[in-house]
Amino acid sequence: MYEIKYSKESFEEVLQQAYDNLEPQDIKDLLNEAARLYKIPENKNDFIYNIANSVVKKRNISFKQWKAISAYVSECNRKQDIKNNKSF
After folding, report:
1. Engineering a disulfide at 11: which of 6, 18, 22, 83 sits with its beta carbon 3.0 to 4.6 angstroms away?
2. Cβ–Cβ contacts within 10 Å for residue 78, how many?
3. pTM of the predicted model, to two decimals?
4. Contact indicator for 48, 62 with CB cutoff of 8 Å
5. C-beta separation of 61 from 55 below 8 A
């Protein structure tokens, strides 16, 4: 298995590039996915919910807000993938 190793600084650069390349639809899709995941009881996270509400109200998302919501969505999806896998 091939693993990509990032330093903290290079990982931040990759994230910054992804943020810089965001289109309005990407942000809407992320917020919709976060809202969908929040409705699942085991995914409740009031901190993320408050961040997302702030983004929606202001119609503006900062890099830190994007990182937090993206991390939440990724973590919830990763948990769901693990839950759906079978072990042997």
Report:
1. 6
2. 10
3. 0.82
4. no
5. yes
